[in-house]
Design brief:
Blueprint lengths: L3 E2 L3 H12 L5 E5 L2 H4 L3 E3 L1 E3 L5 E3 L1 E7 L5 E7 L5 E6 L3 E5 L5 E6 L4 E7 L5 E6 L4 E4 L5 E5 L5 E7 L5 E6 L3 E5 L5 E6 L4 E7 L5 E6 L3 E5 L5 E6 L4 E7 L5 E6 L18 E4 L4 E4 L30 E6 L5 E7 L3 E7 L5 E6 L3 E6 L4 E7 L4 E7 L5 E6 L4 E8 L2 E5 L3 E17 L5 E9 L21 E2 L5 E11 L6 E11 L5 E7 L4 E3 L41 E3 L3 E9 L7 E8 L6 E7 L3 E5 L6 E10 L11 E5 L3 E3 L5 E10 L2 E9 L5 E8 L5 E3 L10 E8 L8 E7 L4 E6 L5
Length: 743
């Protein structure tokens, strides 16, 4: 009988709060297929619903010394032929799993195998490729030499002809049973990388640079079936209904050179066209195949697929096609149809095998190989699925039975800083006789190493167990699933943590020019001013609805306007814990020691201060950011910053007329302008209501709080008088009137 455990979030939150003494626990979660696929699995499957279950048991059939196994071909006795790389060998594995070397080619790579009459096989090698014919006994002959550098694929038709796909000139050769051949189709691509023959005898050709699929009839006439935005067609496979599946990858087999071998091995890197390999003069060593993310754009001008490593297309018998699957993480190497007619995809560079089922088809991770690439698939007559790998080169068989036990290791989760761990919980379906055990470990390096803690003992309670691993920055969890005839299903894992509280940081304070204020965006009626609240009660808690993201820039200030006597202050602060911040604003006048509270408990990083409530002078403000809203009182922290000095001056200058005299037809008015705090900035006059004209001080520079001026008029002061206007540096304005009598 199955038992589903539905766990309450409240219980975990309570446990986390109790153990951490904090109010803002965060969580690492894995609940979907994409989240679970970030971890490492062994003998487990992950379906499209995010269920982790026991996968098929995997048997190691053969492990040669070659680092790459490239291709598989069934033998007439129920065994398998395996083509390898870096040593150019063909291995034979019999029906009982006994393996031996069957053929050793002079060339380095065997990328292609095809059946030959009487139980033999054809072998295509590279570089300086040749086609060899092997009898059942293992006797070999050089069958066909195309004079090309690479042979990527072989295919035979019903008449016993063999087609040879080559590079770097992109030519397909047709070779008769007698070994005589000629160019059958010359593509415009660099390499022909895949071949297949359809039910009517047409040849299907996949190319590289550009990645296209063409149908070639008996006369060698080509018809383009599929033009992809990727760089290479990797595999072609028909299903039982005649639909063609096409594997396409970004990058020509390998987008990066292999690591440099140690100097003492005397190794030289040889480019075989698809995979860089190391030819070692003293011993054979496995070299990692590069990532397949070449990121090329096809010559046909398709959309750039730099983010996608590969895709699988489905082409129906009538020629219509659709993109069946695409991945930014996995590159498809080979395709197969399993016993139930489902598509199976072998991928790299994490060795994943996917199976598609349902309508519409959805992917299930069937297994993950203990190798970087799964390079070839083969389904035998009993429905068993074999797969070959590279890095390292091995041959495996998937069993029809479930594995008795499987493990999942999550990716290391980063708390960003040293954290305290809360509770871990998991959900799933656990039939009788099955079990899921969860353990954790922690450390302070991004990749787990010997400095990490040991794995904890399995936690007892699925509905929330306190994590016992030491406080650290990184946490990893492991699930061990086991069962006899049934499998448990793990559907989610959640781990709570609390970051070590870090002090908030106030990065900057902007003191806007006096009187500059900003209307709140989207306000209705009389526009409200951003940051301006009731100025009469400094201790009043503000409750603005709009919250500004703590880590973002200063808030949207809205339309700029001017109101005399107001001073706008804007600051930028953040908290690495993403805690909610509240602000206190203090002020002091130059020469004073003690700070005075201006506002408390602000939730927005802006304040408009009515400066008419304080005397003129030079002032400083201090912004104090507190994370107390997200932390217990004994762990809350504050950060602060003091602004640069700024002036408050709400008193206008004074104008003193010293005298009016005449010199001939001219009239001269002398006057002084004084200001008790700010420099005099601008003085103007207007005669009889006409335009304002500037007046400059006698010393030529308006830079002090007292300036002397003279205005020379061409005639007498008119009936409407002479108007004088003076402004100081803080935009305070004074006016004075001189009449025709000189008063």
């Amino acid at each position: 009988m199955s038992k589903t455990r539905v766990l309450g979030v409240a219980a975990v939150l309570a446990a986390a709060a109790a153990s951490l003494h904090a109010s803002s626990a965060k969580f690492f979660r894995a609940t979907t297929q994409s989240e679970f696929l970030k971890g490492d699995v062994q003998n487990l499957s992950i379906d499209n619903r995010g269920q982790v279950t026991l996968g098929p048991a995997t048997d190691l059939v053969y492990e040669p010394s070659a680092p790459f196994l490239w291709c598989l071909l069934p033998a007439s006795d129920g065994g398998l032929f395996v083509g390898s790389g870096n040593d150019g060998k063909v291995f034979r594995v019999d029906a009982q799993g006994k393996a031996s070397a069957f053929f050793d080619a002079p060339e380095l790579e065997v990328h292609a195998l095809a059946p030959a009459p009487d139980g033999g096989l054809y072998v295509g090698t590279s570089p300086d490729g040749k086609v060899y014919k092997l009898a059942r006994s293992g006797a070999s002959t050089s069958f066909f030499d195309p004079g090309e550098k690479y042979i990527w694929a072989l295919a035979t038709d019903a008449r016993g002809n063999i087609f040879v796909a080559t590079g770097e000139k992109g030519v397909v050769y047709k070779v008769g049973p007698d070994g005589k051949g000629a160019a059958f189709y010359k593509s415009k691509a660099t390499n022909v990388t895949a071949l297949a023959v359809d039910r009517t005898g047409n040849l299907l050709v996949g190319t590289e640079s550009p990645a296209r699929v063409l149908r070639i009839d008996a006369d060698g006439k080509a018809f383009l079936l599929l033009d992809t935005p990727f760089e290479e067609i990797r595999a072609l496979r028909f299903d039982d209904k005649g639909a063609l599946y096409v594997a396409a990858v970004s990058g020509r087999g390998a987008g990066a050179a292999p690591p440099a071998p140690p100097a003492e091995t005397g190794a030289a890197v040889v480019d075989t066209g698809r995979t860089p390999v190391a030819v070692v003069t003293t011993e054979v060593t496995a070299v990692s195949v590069g990532d397949l993310s070449g990121g090329a754009t096809s010559a046909s001008g398709h959309e750039d697929k730099r983010s996608a490593k590969g895709a699988v297309y489905r082409v129906s018998p009538d020629g219509l096609w659709d993109e069946f699957w695409q991945s930014s993480d996995d590159s498809p190497y080979d395709l197969a149809i399993d016993a139930q007619g489902r598509l199976v995809i072998a991928t790299g560079n994490k060795g994943k095998i996917y199976r598609f089922e349902g309508d519409p088809p959805q992917p299930t991770l069937v297994t993950r190989a203990p190798a970087q690439q799964v390079t070839a698939l083969y389904k035998n007559s009993r429905g068993e699925l074999y797969y070959a790998t590279a890095n390292p080169g091995k041959l495996f068989r998937l069993s029809a039975d479930l594995a008795a036990q499987g493990t999942y290791e999550s990716e290391p989760h980063d708390a960003q800083v040293v954290a305290s761990w809360g509770a871990i919980r998991w959900r799933g379906t656990f039939p009788s006789g099955t079990k899921v055990e969860i353990s954790t470990r922690s450390g302070n390096t991004e990749t787990p190493d010997d400095t990490w803690s040991n794995w904890s003992a399995p936690y007892p309670a699925a509905d929330g167990s306190p994590i016992t691993s030491p406080k650290a920055r990184f946490l990893q969890w492991r699930a061990t699933l086991s069962g006899r005839s049934q499998s448990p299903a793990l559907t989610s894992v959640t781990a709570a943590y609390l970051q070590r509280n870090l002090r908030p940081v106030v990065h900057s304070i902007t003191v806007h020019p006096p009187g500059i204020v900003f209307q709140k965006p989207f306000s209705t009626g009389d526009p409200d001013l951003a940051g301006f609240e009731n100025q009469s009660t400094p201790d009043r808690k503000l409750t603005n609805a709009a919250m500004t993201a703590q880590n973002g820039p200063t808030p949207a200030l809205g339309r700029r306007t001017y109101q005399k006597g107001l001073q706008t202050l804007v600051w930028r602060a953040d908290d690495e814990n993403d805690d909610e911040l509240r602000y206190e604003i203090d002020y002091r006048r130059e020469g004073e020691v003690a700070w005075r509270v201006l506002r408390r408990d602000l939730d927005e990083p802006i304040l408009v201060w009515d400066t008419t409530t304080v005397p003129n002078g030079t002032y400083f403000v201090r912004v104090i950011a507190s994370d107390a809203a997200s932390n217990a009182p004994d762990t809350a922290l504050t950060g602060e910053l003091v602004s640069s000095a700024f002036e408050i001056d709400n008193t206008p200058p004074e104008i003193f007329v010293r005298g009016v005299r005449t010199e001939g037809a001219r009239t001269i008015v002398t006057f002084d302008v004084t200001d008790d705090h700010s420099p005099v900035q601008r003085v103007e006059y207007s005669l009889d209501g006409l335009d304002w004209r500037p007046v400059f001080p006698a010393d030529g520079i308006a830079d002090s709080r007292q300036e002397h001026y003279e205005v020379t008029l061409d005639g007498a002061i008119g009936p409407h008088g002479l108007s004088l206007r003076a402004s100081d540096a803080m935009n305070n304005v004074a006016t004075s009137q001189v009449d025709s009598s000189g008063r």
